[in-house]
Specification:
It is built from seven helices and two strands; from the N terminus they run E-E-H-H-H-H-H-H-H. By secondary structure, it is mostly helical. The chain has a two-stranded antiparallel sheet with strand order 1-2. A hairpin with a 2-residue loop joins strand 1 and strand 2. Helix 1 crosses helix 7 and helix 2 runs parallel beside helix 7. The longest helix is centred in the C-terminal third of the chain and has 24 residues. It is globular and about 50 Å long.
């Protein structure tokens, strides 16, 4: 994102006029995230953590706002960065955060998601919820290149977050 005398600008224009098929894929992912299998708060927490790991101001601002709008206390929002030491997360939320970190962080000494982590996740989530959790992490993976390369304008709603 660059700044001008008129305000922030994205690097690239809105992708939908160029690749309209993207809207269908994104819409499908959004629908999965709202299927009720896991709380939306969990989705926002893990996506905030993903934004922090990726170094994406866009994701970090978006998910912080989503959590505030959902009524989450500032303590939980700010503690996402140090969730391992925080006492304000449920076991299921902690597993979601741990899975997110495992998927997005290289592990030079072995598998990113070992059987022990999968066992913890499957103890907290049934098959539908676990697949929804996987898709919540995939959602970030799908949009990460756009966030990091195109640099949509942080704080702007989808569809209005690109400079056309």
């Amino acid at each position: 994102m660059s700044m001008t005398t008129t305000g922030p600008r994205s690097r690239m224009p809105n992708p939908i006029p160029f690749v309209p098929e993207m809207a269908e894929v994104a819409g499908g992912l959004h629908k999965v995230l709202r299927n009720g299998a896991i709380p939306l708060t969990t989705v926002h927490l893990l996506q905030l953590r993903a934004g922090q790991i990726l170094g994406s101001t866009y994701f970090t601002i978006r998910e912080t706002r989503n959590l505030r709008e959902a009524g989450e206390p500032e303590e939980r929002i700010t503690a996402v960065a140090t969730w391992r030491d925080a006492t304000c997360f449920t076991d299921a939320e902690r597993v979601a955060l741990q899975l997110t970190e495992a998927v997005l962080t290289p592990n030079p000494s072995g598998e990113r998601v070992p059987d022990s982590l999968y066992a913890k996740a499957s103890a907290c989530y049934d098959a539908k919820a676990l697949w929804t959790l996987v898709m919540a992490i995939a959602h970030i993976g799908f949009f990460a290149p756009a966030a990091l390369i195109a640099k949509p304008i942080p704080g702007m709603p989808p569809g209005q977050n690109y400079t056309d």
